[in-house]
Design brief:
alpha/beta; 2 domains; eight-stranded mixed beta sheet; 8 strands; membrane; transmembrane
């Protein structure tokens, strides 16, 4: 086989019902492009028949390659492992749940061939619940403000990168990361294209509310110190307000005299300040925890076996 021009990266975790449908739609799309390609699946410790199906695909399709993880290391580590083993000049990431149609890939490839080094996608008419759409919008706006980046849709993994950006991503060895934002830091000419969106055909979403919150914490603390700066500013403002309030109470005591009323109001104010302190400790702990993860230097993931690369 000639060296692939396009690499398709697909992380897989318990996607048994979707894999055959995915390949049945993806393979004709890639063949129609008329350029050498490879499709790399990373099985992220699936507990269903996903790995068995992927092995069969690798045997029947020479373009299909499979990386088998030794456990569940997360979507972004699955993608990073495939990045390191990919060979294409254009690398496209795609989820296995068919919510982002494979038929949109030529649109990203065409945009890359115009000279862009990173091409993101913006989901149109999203087939998600109102809660997830609203939460996504809030996260996109907040993250843009905190990181200084400008992306319309952080949550869509249908994205394309050129080889230079991929090589820079492969040099990064942090334990927790968010690939779209990390790639954006290396991009000199990024772009975005609108893509369609579909409901999940089979199975359940792998991102619970807790995992979404966890991912957003990683995104904000991994690419900016703005949260710490905002908290420091809040601390300063709170201190100033506390001094002004103490002066107010002192003047009030001289004018009105001592009184018992207002004790519960003071308790409420005290609890508010204690809440701010606890929040600040948690925020600092988030950064310290990331440092702790990095200094241990444990492997980010463990590859048990690969299929199709030989």
């Amino acid at each position: 086989m000639s060296k692939p021009y396009i690499s398709i990266i697909i992380p897989v975790y318990n996607e048994e019902p979707n894999l055959q449908k995915l390949l049945a739609r993806l393979y004709p799309v890639m063949t129609a492009l008329g350029k050498p390609f490879e499709i790399i699946f990373t099985d992220d410790g699936s507990r269903d028949r996903s790995l068995e199906i992927l092995r069969e695909m690798a045997q029947s399709h020479p373009e299909v390659k499979v990386i088998e993880f030794n456990g569940n290391f997360g979507q972004h580590m699955a993608i990073m492992a495939a990045f390191e083993m990919s060979a294409g000049e254009i690398v496209v990431t795609l989820d296995a749940d068919l919510q982002n149609p494979p038929e949109e890939i030529p649109k990203l490839v065409a945009e890359m061939e115009k000279g862009h080094d990173v091409v993101g996608s913006v989901r149109q008419k999203r087939q998600d619940t109102f809660f997830r759409r609203a939460a996504s919008r809030i996260v996109n706006i907040t993250t843009n403000k905190m990181t200084g980046m400008q992306m319309s849709d952080y949550g869509c993994m249908l994205r394309a990168y050129n080889r230079t950006v991929i090589d820079n991503l492969n040099r990064c060895q942090e334990m927790t990361t968010f690939i779209p934002a990390l790639a954006q830091t290396f991009a000199s000419n990024p772009s975005e294209v609108p893509v369609s969106h579909a409901e999940r055909a089979e199975g359940e979403s792998k991102y619970s509310l807790y995992r979404l919150i966890r991912l957003n914490f990683d995104l904000m603390t991994g690419f900016s110190v703005v949260p710490l700066q905002l908290f420091a500013l809040l601390g300063i403002l709170t201190s100033v307000a506390s001094v002004l309030f103490a002066l107010f109470l002192l003047v009030r005591r001289f004018l009105i005299g001592s009184e018992v009323e207002g004790v519960f109001t003071l308790f409420a104010i005290l609890f508010f300040f204690v809440g701010i302190i606890i929040f600040g400790i948690g925020l600092v702990g988030e950064y310290v925890g990331r440092i702790y993860q990095e200094v241990r230097r444990r492997p980010r993931y463990v590859v048990r076996r690969t299929y199709g690369f030989e």
